[in-house]
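Private note to self, pasted from the team thread so I don't lose it. C-alpha cells:
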C-alpha cells in the first residue's frame, strides 16, 4: 500500500473481547465503565453484547471462550481507557475494589518515572488486563519500575 492510499482519518472503532460468562462480564463492564447495552444476542452458542456510551459502540463481548485470558499467547496485551481526571481513576478503583477485582499495583501509579500520566492496572473476571488512566495527576507516586513503561509489563 502506498502512502497515498492509507486511510487519513483512522481511529479505533471498538474492541471485541472473548469471555467465558456473558452475564458476569456484562455486570462487571457496566458497573466499572458505566456502559449501556446497545445490542445483545442470546441464541445458544451465539451469545454477545455490544456496549457503549452516549450511542457510541466501544466494547463487544462474545461468549466464545472456555478458559481465562492467557497473557503468554500472542494477542491483546491490555485494553486502556482514558478519563479526564485522576479523581475519576480513584473512583473507578473504589468500584473495582468493591467487586473484588485483582490489581497489578497498589493504587494509582504513573506510566513511568517522572510521568504525570498514570492510573490503575487490573483484570476483568476472565483475567483480561485493563487500565484506566488520566493524562495528569499520577506524579505523586513512584513508578513501579523505573526503567520501563508501567503499562507494558503487567
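Design output:
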Amino acid at each position: 500500500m502506498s502512502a497515498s492510499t492509507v486511510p487519513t482519518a483512522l481511529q479505533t472503532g471498538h474492541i471485541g473481547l472473548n469471555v467465558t460468562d456473558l452475564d458476569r462480564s456484562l455486570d462487571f463492564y457496566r458497573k466499572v465503565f458505566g456502559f449501556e447495552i446497545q445490542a445483545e444476542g442470546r441464541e445458544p452458542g451465539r451469545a454477545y453484547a455490544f456496549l457503549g456510551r452516549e450511542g457510541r459502540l466501544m466494547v463487544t463481548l462474545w461468549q466464545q471462550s472456555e478458559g481465562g485470558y492467557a497473557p503468554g499467547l500472542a494477542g491483546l496485551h491490555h485494553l486502556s481507557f482514558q478519563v479526564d481526571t485522576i479523581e475519576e481513576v480513584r473512583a473507578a478503583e473504589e468500584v473495582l475494589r468493591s467487586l473484588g477485582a485483582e490489581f497489578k499495583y497498589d493504587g494509582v501509579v504513573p506510566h513511568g518515572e517522572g510521568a504525570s500520566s498514570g492510573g490503575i492496572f487490573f483484570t476483568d473476571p476472565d483475567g483480561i488486563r485493563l487500565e484506566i488512566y488520566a493524562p495528569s495527576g499520577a506524579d505523586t507516586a513512584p513508578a513501579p519500575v523505573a526503567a520501563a513503561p508501567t503499562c507494558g509489563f503487567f
